[in-house]
Amino acid sequence: MQESLKFALGWCRLLSEMLPYQQPVDEVIPVFFWALELLEDRRDPWGMDLRFLWRILKVWGVAPSLSSCGSCGKRLSEGTWKDGVFLCPVCSPGGRGRIPLEAATFWARTDKKNLPQETLSEGNRKNLYAVRSIISSNLKAFR
């Protein structure tokens, strides 16, 4: 539970830094509420962190696709990040730093009632953290 609180406080800080002062941001409230609710329901905080960030970016219109190539639209299981999108191996030949995207896609897009309550493996947590770190660069558009 302590780890969940750490993530929840991080989301509060992120929103306080990103949201315009004294401006309505009603579209953010449901994303934030359900993320907190799912943390309380003991969903893995690492998965919830990626889900929260991706869904906030989606609301703001800058979430990258985690499931299809940003150039050709081909379905992705892994991708290389370039210019704000994930690219397939064909569109990024010799692309270094390919990242598995299936776990990130699952956590970002799955209906909340189908999210597992089990703790993620260390490998899945690392993959989610890598994707989260990369897509958070899309937040720079709001600073």
Provide structural commentary.
By secondary structure, the chain is mostly helical. Helix content is 47%, strand content 7%. A hairpin with a 2-residue loop joins strand 1 (78-82) and strand 2. Helix 2 runs antiparallel to helix 3. The protein is globular.
Defining traits:
three-stranded antiparallel beta sheet; 5 helices; globular; single chain; 143 residues; mainly alpha
Helix-strand layout with pairing:
Elements: H1 2-18, H2 28-40, H3 45-59, E1 78-82, E2 85-87, E3 99-100, H4 102-109, H5 122-135
Antiparallel strand pairs: 1-2, 1-3
Helix pairs in contact: 1-2, 1-3, 2-3, 3-4, 3-5
Helix content: 40-55%
Would you tell me the structural class of the helices and strands?
A: mainly alpha
Rg over C-alpha atoms, rounded to the nearest angstrom: 15 Å
Mean pLDDT metric: 90
Helix-strand topology string = HHHEEEHH
Q: Give a quick account of the main beta sheet: strands, pairing sense, barrel closure.
A: 3 strands, antiparallel
| Ends distance | 31 Å
Biggest sheet: strand arrangement: 2-1-3
The fraction of residues assigned to DSSP E strands is: 5-15%
Produce a short descriptive summary:
By secondary structure, this protein is mostly helical. The chain has 5 helices and 3 strands, in the order αααβββαα. 47% of the residues lie in helices and 7% in strands.
